Amino acid sequence: SAFAPVIAPFGVAGRNVNSLSGRSGLSAAPAGSRNALARASVPALRMGGEAAQKISAEAGEESLQNCRYWSCLPSMSTMYTDLPETFHLIKGKVAIMPVTVSGVPTGDAVEFVEGDYGVVPAGAYRWDVQRPSTKMTNCREGLQMTTKGWQEESPFKALQGKGTLSTKGRTSQDDLEYLKGLVAEKGVPPQSSWENAIQYKLDRDIYCANLSFVVTDKGILVQDRVSGENLEVLTAEGWKPYNDQETYTETEASQRWTKDGNFDTSPFFLNE
């Protein structure tokens, strides 16, 4: 029959043992081109290409409306995405390098630090998470991110980071640096508001979880919550190093805070 398959014997050059002759004009590929065809079957977008780019906050925020937060501990993994990813690195430090599907670098790594906005083109990219990191991202590869060590944060801002990866691995020094950045941005709280700042802001901030605070006559002693080590002193004028040769007298209200978690006197003891 004219439509019967013609089976070429093994070893005959230029024939594919599964080729069909006379059906649809299909011609067999030369044996030497098989590797090229195999390579062509790998989508080009899977190959590392352009380097990741830093973008402005305005451009990033426009792409990140209604997006979620993801956190990851220090690690290294390769992500394969079909679409570009826009992200805002809330905390941490990462380096992103374009690679091939087999992990061979095709360009230089770009470092992103806390506060940076960036775009990662579609393709294969190696994420080197160098510090515990949290990012807001429009990436829809939730399953892939989970298998690569990323964990989704709570959609509620007050719960973000609690019981998740965003605060794991942080030390009191990390939290102190965060607090210094917060003070630099917001300004030094006046002495009259120290107690409120501690009770309603600092003690509830997940990125100050490794710190404790003692109000004294010379300022707020910032301590390591676990070891009790005195780290630095926040005064009305700014930061000062802790001096173990000086005497810091804790206020009565601060003693109540240390004992009961409240600066105010309990109404049950007002008459005492």
Spans of at least 5 consecutive residues whose pLDDT stays below 50 are: 1-45
- Class by SSE composition: alpha+beta
Radius of gyration: 29 Å
Number of strands: 12
Topology at a glance:
Elements: H1 34-40, E1 53-55, H2 57-63, E2 68-72, E3 75-81, E4 85-98, E5 110-113, E6 117-120, E7 123-137, H3 142-147, E8 151-152, H4 172-186, H5 194-200, E9 211-216, E10 219-224, E11 230-235, E12 238-241, H6 252-260
What is this entry, summarized?
This protein has 272 residues and is α+β, with helices and mostly antiparallel strands.
Descriptive overview:
It is built from 6 helices and 12 strands. Strands 1, 2, 3, 4, 5, 6, 7 and 8 form an 8-stranded antiparallel beta sheet that branches. A 4-stranded antiparallel beta sheet has the order 9-10-11-12. The longest helix is centred in the middle third of the chain and has 15 residues, at 172-186. By secondary structure, the chain is of the alpha+beta class. It has helices at 34-40, 57-63, 142-147, 172-186, 194-200, 252-260, and strands at 53-55, 68-72, 75-81, 85-98, 110-113, 117-120, 123-137, 151-152, 211-216, 219-224, 230-235, 238-241.
For this entry, give a set of tags.
disordered N terminus; single chain; alpha+beta; 272 residues; 6 helices; four-stranded antiparallel sheet; eight-stranded antiparallel sheet
